[in-house]
Design goal:
It contains ten helices and 20 strands. The protein is of the alpha/beta class. The strands form four sheets. The chain has a seven-stranded mixed beta sheet, sandwiched between helices.
């Protein structure tokens, strides 16, 4: 099959030679024909040498590369990419583990499939397109997924209403494109939880914090735990299993608090150690006193784009300063940023500033990141978005 061609300006192929998967609109010299958004195009250098093929799109990123070899993007292509992704998750001990049926199968650029996310919750895969190209190919991907995973995946839920470029005006509605099970209980390290893939954030659960939750369990014994921005309570029920004396979960969303309570009840029915509050984070931190010696700060992304970076860093400093002010001596703080534009150094500086303001002695015990099923493509360092620190506060 022959695809329409786009040509780069002189010397604009350097990043593609280093296998970076994005072609920015400013690098384009000319576009042959009139490819529609989401169409597959071949990318050529100014010397008319093939260099990549990928999804064409309107916006600052003009092409997301799918392959650096000239080939047809067909069923075999999708099947091979998904087989490679599945094998990686098996090698990590995630896929096929009865104690853990929750993992990310496809992590966009990290799995050389830019614009595509697939999370697995037991027998349901939740598929999310972040580009028009992946939206256009959704049924081909779903068919390849069924072939690769067999009976493991009985339902595929497509959840891209809020992630597709709104200017594309696709009118996409979320819904099942295979199966239709309402069984939404999944398992992570032997703990059960309800997944709200219908209305929840992301694909319904924050799979990326699995290893960090597991680490937290080891710190929880005998401690009074505060889980801020708890969403569906992941850190809370790990803390309870770790032997926490009490666990308080806080989120501004009443719906998130309902899910947290359901998840705690699923794992620890009738356990009186847990209480949940639907309240603004900063208001709660202001009034909470000094009862906690283990605090988790896992806020939503404070910055979605570079223009918001300065305000985001101020937000992280303010948030962490409150925790340093209130946490008991000998306390442990788990603090995170999931903002892609906030790099590790920026984040650490924001937390450092907060620590300095508090005047307390603070030591770094662990530096955290995203788990292996959220791999970072070595040629696409922007994929490293989750940063965390475990701090000991004297």
């Amino acid at each position: 099959m022959t695809y329409k061609k786009v040509y780069l300006k002189p010397s604009k192929e350097e990043s593609l030679k280093r296998f970076h998967p994005w072609v920015f609109s400013g690098a384009l010299q000319s576009v042959e024909g009139e490819p529609e958004e989401g169409e597959i195009v071949d990318v050529y250098t100014s010397k008319k040498e093939f260099i990549a093929c990928g999804h064409f799109q309107i916006g600052s990123i003009a092409v997301r590369a799918l392959s650096f070899q000239q080939r047809e993007i067909d069923h075999e292509f999708w099947k091979h990419k998904l087989e490679v992704a599945y094998e990686l998750r098996r090698s990590l001990g995630l896929a096929g583990n009865p104690e853990n049926n929750t993992y990310r199968l496809v992590h966009g650029e990290g799995d050389n499939l830019p614009g595509l996310i697939i999370d697995v919750y037991d027998h349901t895969a939740v598929m999310q397109a972040h580009s028009v190209g992946m939206h256009v190919c959704r049924m081909e991907i779903a068919n390849a997924l069924s072939e690769v995973m067999g009976d493991v995946i009985q339902n595929i839920y497509y959840k891209s209403e809020t992630t597709l470029p709104f200017k594309a005006e696709l009118g996409q509605e979320n819904g099942f494109i295979k199966g239709g099970s309402s069984d939404n209980i999944a398992m992570e390290y032997g703990l059960k939880f309800h997944v709200d893939w219908l209305k929840g954030q992301k694909t319904g659960f924050f799979v990326d914090q699995r290893e960090n939750r597991y680490l937290l369990e080891r710190f929880a014994k005998g401690r009074n735990v505060l889980n801020m921005f708890c969403y569906t309570g992941g850190f809370s029920f790990y803390a309870m299993r770790g032997g926490a004396r009490l666990v308080h979960s806080v989120d501004s969303s009443a719906k998130a608090i309902d899910l947290t309570n359901m998840n705690v009840e699923l794992n620890f029915p009738g356990d009186t150690r847990h209480k949940a509050y639907a309240e603004d984070a900063f208001k709660y931190l202001d009034r909470m006193g000094d009862q906690y010696d283990l605090i988790i700060l896992d806020p939503p992304a404070f910055a979605k784009h570079r223009d918001a970076l300065r305000n985001a860093l101020r937000g992280y400093t303010k948030l962490n300063a409150k925790a340093f002010e209130k946490i008991k001596p000998g306390g442990i703080l788990f603090t995170f940023s999931c903002s892609q534009v906030v790099d590790k150094i920026n984040f650490r500086n924001a937390v450092f500033t907060a620590a300095a303001q508090s005047g307390r002695s603070v030591r770094i015990l662990h530096q955290l990141t995203q788990p292996g099923d959220h791999p970072v493509n070595i040629y696409h360092p922007e994929g490293e978005y989750l940063k965390g620190l475990v701090l000991y506060v004297e």
